[in-house]
């Protein structure tokens, strides 16, 4: 969190977000989780979680994003972080107190294919019609309709010279991916965004990237976290190929997000390093 750049403290933002909650919640012990690139989360024991935006780009969409979460159907069999109070906005930043979602992330590389398939189906079966106006356009976080030009003009020039042609090939492959049946997509279905308990997915966090897409979007996220070899057990070879095309641009998309959000140069530089390493380890060796 860029506390050095803020004229308002994290404590002030959190206090504002929880101001209308019961006293026991406001006084609960707090733990800061600093995993996400767009938000950090302050846990108030097992009572609540406060999402705090890291930049003004993300803050401008928090109200719409939380409205989407509050509108998700209750019958999907997974807990979601519904609002406990209104979105608080202070000096261009935003925060919201939400219900606590119990559980822990599945360790990387673990997760039974049957449960991954249940998780994927639970999300893709959500009826998007009532939620349409709250959904993002695909790849909005790294440019939306302009994502391709941002990749070509802003991202690729930052990649090491010897990897630029590989990066461009990955971007071109995604841009030429033929449209398929559109379903509700979480957009980042894996890692710290899914809570598990005793081998079962129990809750889903961070719905900020939700959009209409095909199943390969969420399939790619599951494969990256739980193990790519498991995808063949829950999807067709065709879908796995499409998921691979998406996966090959993930690091480049993340770099695009940081550029679009005008994040500090240190963060952008770190993302450049991660993108170069990923290309070297996964694309250059083919």
What do you see in this structure?
With 286 residues, the protein is α+β, with helices and mostly antiparallel strands. The protein folds into two domains: 3-101, 2-Layer Sandwich (Phosphorylase Kinase, domain 1), CATH 3.30.200.20; 105-282, Aminoglycoside phosphotransferase (APH), C-terminal lobe (Aminoglycoside 3'-phosphotransferase, Chain: A, domain 2, Alpha-Beta Complex). It has helices spanning 10-17, 23-26, 56-59, 62-71, 113-124, 147-155, 164-175, 216-226, 237-247, 250-260, 265-282; strands at residues 30-33, 39-44, 48-53, 88-90, 93-99, 104-105, 183-185, 194-197, 200-204, 211-213. Strands 1-2-3-5-4 form a five-stranded antiparallel beta sheet. The protein has a three-stranded antiparallel beta sheet with strand order 6-8-9, covered by helices on one side. Strand 8 and strand 9 form a beta hairpin.
Write the SSE topology.
Layout: H1 10-17, H2 23-26, E1 30-33, E2 39-44, E3 48-53, H3 56-59, H4 62-71, E4 88-90, E5 93-99, E6 104-105, H5 113-124, H6 147-155, H7 164-175, E7 183-185, E8 194-197, E9 200-204, E10 211-213, H8 216-226, H9 237-247, H10 250-260, H11 265-282
Antiparallel strand pairs: 1-2, 2-3, 3-5, 4-5, 6-8, 7-10, 8-9
Helix pairs in contact: 6-10, 8-9, 10-11
In short:
This is Aminoglycoside phosphotransferase domain-containing protein. By secondary structure, the protein is of the alpha+beta class. The chain is built from eleven helices and ten strands.
């Amino acid at each position: 969190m860029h506390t050095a750049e803020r004229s308002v403290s994290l404590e002030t933002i959190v206090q504002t977000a929880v101001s209308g909650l019961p006293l026991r919640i406001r006084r609960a012990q707090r733990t800061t989780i600093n995993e996400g690139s767009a938000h950090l989360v302050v846990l108030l024991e097992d009572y609540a979680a406060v999402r705090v935006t890291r930049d003004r780009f993300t803050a401008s969409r928090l109200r719409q994003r939380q409205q989407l979460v509050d509108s998700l159907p209750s019958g999907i069999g997974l807990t979601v972080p519904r609002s406990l109070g209104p979105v608080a906005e202070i000096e261009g930043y935003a925060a919201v107190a939400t219900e606590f979602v119990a559980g822990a992330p599945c360790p990387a590389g673990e997760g039974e294919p049957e449960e991954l398939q249940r998780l994927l189906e639970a999300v893709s079966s959500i009826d998007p019609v009532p939620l349409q106006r709250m959904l993002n356009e695909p790849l909005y976080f790294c440019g939306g309709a302009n994502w391709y030009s941002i990749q070509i003009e802003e991202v690729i020039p930052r990649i090491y010279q010897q990897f630029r042609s590989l990066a461009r090939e990955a971007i071109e492959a995604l841009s030429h991916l033929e449209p398929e049946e559109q379903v509700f997509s979480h957009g980042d279905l894996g890692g710290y965004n899914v809570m598990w308990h005793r081998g079962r997915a129990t809750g889903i966090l961070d719905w900020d990237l939700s959009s209409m897409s095909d199943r390969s979007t969420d399939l790619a996220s599951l494969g990256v976290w739980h193990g790519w070899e498991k995808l063949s057990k829950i999807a067709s070879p065709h879908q796995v190929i499409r998921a691979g095309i998406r996966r090959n641009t993930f690091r480049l998309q993340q770099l695009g997000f940081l550029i679009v959000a005008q994040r500090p140069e240190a963060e952008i530089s770190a993302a450049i390093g991660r993108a170069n390493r990923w290309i070297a380890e996964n694309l250059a060796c083919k």
